[in-house]
Amino acid sequence: MNYWNVDAGNLSECASPLFDLIREVSDQGRDVAREHYGVKKGWVFHQNTDLWRVAAPMDGANWGTFTTGGAWLCTHIWEHYLFTGDKNFLKKYYPEMKGCAQFFLGFLVKDPVRGWLVTNPSTSPDNPPGSPQNVRFFDEMNGTYYRGSQICYGSTIDTQILLDLFQEVAEASEILADDPQFRREVLKTRSKLGPMQVGKDAALQEWIDDWPQMEERHRHLAHLYGLYPGNVISPVKTPALVESVKKVLEQRGDGSVGWSRAWKTALWARLYDGNRANRILKGYLTETCNKSLFSKSGQALQVDEPLGAAAAVSEMLVQSHEGYLHLLPALPDEWSARGRFSGVVTRGAFELDYSWADGLTKQIKLVSRAGEKCRIKSDTDLGITCDGKEIQANRDNDGTYFFLTKRNGVYMIKFENKNVIQERKLAEIDRSRPFNFVPLLHNKLDRFLSQLFAVI
Predict the structure, then answer these.
(1) In the chain, which end has fewer C-beta atoms inside a 10 angstrom radius, N or C?
(2) Residue 424's pLDDT band (cuts 50, 70, 90)
(3) Taking CA 57 as the corner, what is the angle to CA 75 and CA 228, rounded to the nearest 5 degrees?
(4) CB of 410 within 8 A of CB of 444?
């Protein structure tokens, strides 16, 4: 969560310690993959590490069975590339992404009932499922009783993380023109992962079986990873799952510890509900946040909450994970009168400075750091200039506008008012036609007769 906003917040250089950690932990991760799981290729990392870059399960079997920790970290490599367009960076860290995918190619097993490829063992942090066999037990390692085991197979979050990882590794391989055979193998394996499932309570299932949870309002939202920070579920890609996701959020409630509220704010933002996101954000600031912005979490001061909340605010004001810029996707009514967002960065390596009034974007100053094609979601026509010259924007089949950019080019974008556009188009049509005196005469005559009969 500390790094969710590092690229969007224009602080990409602050992510370098994370990438160093990924490279360093993959070293021990190769030994763990081989000795712990019998997988000869690739590396694995679980839920926790330390200064010595331990990669094996630690602190307890209940949460130590989270085998997709390294895969989650690798998605940050891909996201960093999307936000910067830095192919040298992608080439440098591609071996870590590939190695992580290699582990799961050897680790996944077939579910004997459904035939899907699943992780085993697995867990959905930190939530124990209410399966019939799950009862309180004594954990000898920690010396305490737990309300139930979290260990399962094929948890929803594992599947979502691997759907992201395999897709990103395949795309990275294609961009770098490397490993075509490996790319095909990864995509073939991805197609055998299980689908998202909706339970009998109409909520998205957290586990491969339709089990209830043992804690009524658990702070974690592991099976919503695919909505945020992942890119598996969305109102655009999977509209049929939106209501089942909302059902989960309603069940878990708006409260809880600070980092959970930050996550919930971002999740509602991805669902385009700015008012709900704002309500949770205000609850975080007033109930679980110190004046220093560090979160109140028991006796500890935690920093992931305010950093996660910053990421959530960014998601409320601009989103780019669908392949286009979506401005003000979850703008709360309270913020709609007037505002400005300056210095934010989006995927495609675009730096934005834009303002709005009455809930509508007025104009954008866009700097194209990588010279990529820019796509913008807009209900109105765009007026685009660069160095005083007009830039043509074309409309795609999905309704988005796109235009080509040059590296470090500065573009001024204005959103045209619909009425002005319509009047302009009518004027252009009138000018394009040859002048005909007869219709004009008929119109004047009709108007005169109408006025005459009105007087009579």
Answers:
(1) C
(2) very low
(3) 30
(4) no
Interatomic CA distance for residues 247 and 266, integer angstroms:
16
- Using an 8 Å Cβ cutoff, are 210 and 200 in contact? yes
> What pLDDT does residue 257 have?
83
Sign of CA dihedral 153, 156, 159, 162: negative
Sequence-ordered list of residues with C-beta below 8 angstroms from that of 318, at least 6 positions apart, any chain:
8, 325, 326, 327, 328, 329, 341, 344, 346, 352
- Amino acid symbol at 438: V
Distance CA 195, CA 191 (A): 9
In this prediction, residue 146 carries a pLDDT of 67
171 in Cβ contact with 183 (< 8 Å): no
Give me the helix-helix angle, 16-37 and 87-107, nearest 10°.
20
Hey, is 86 helix, strand or coil?
A: coil
Beta strands in 122-222 (DSSP E): 137-139, 144-146
Place of tokens 């999905």: 398
The DSSP letter of residue 219 is: S
Query: What is the average pLDDT across 18-32?
Result: 97
Torsion over CA: 150, 156, 161, 163 (sign): positive
CA–CA dist 367, 433 (Å, integer): 40
> Helix 304-317 crosses helix 258-270 at what angle (to 10 degrees)?
10
pLDDT surpassing 60 at residue 444: no
By the 10 Å C-beta count (0-12 exposed, 13-18 middle, 19+ buried), 172 is classed as buried
Place of tokens 């409630």: 253
Per-residue tokens: 356 = 């709005």
**Residue 207 in tokens:** 């586990």
Q: Does pTM top 0.90 for this prediction?
A: no
Q: Which of 154, 66, 149 is nearest to 112 (CA)?
A: 154
- pLDDT at site 271: 98
Q: Which residues contact 64 (CB under 8 A, 6 or more apart)?
A: 46, 47, 48, 57, 58
pLDDT digits (tens, 9 = 90+) for 118-140: 999 999 888 776 677 777 777 77
Q: What distance in Å separates the CA atoms of residue 290 and residue 284, rounded to the nearest whole number? A: 10
pLDDT at position 456, please?
A: 44
Question: How far apart are the C-alpha atoms of 20 and 448, rounded to whole Å?
Answer: 82
What phi and psi values does residue 327 have, to the nearest 5 degrees? -85, 140
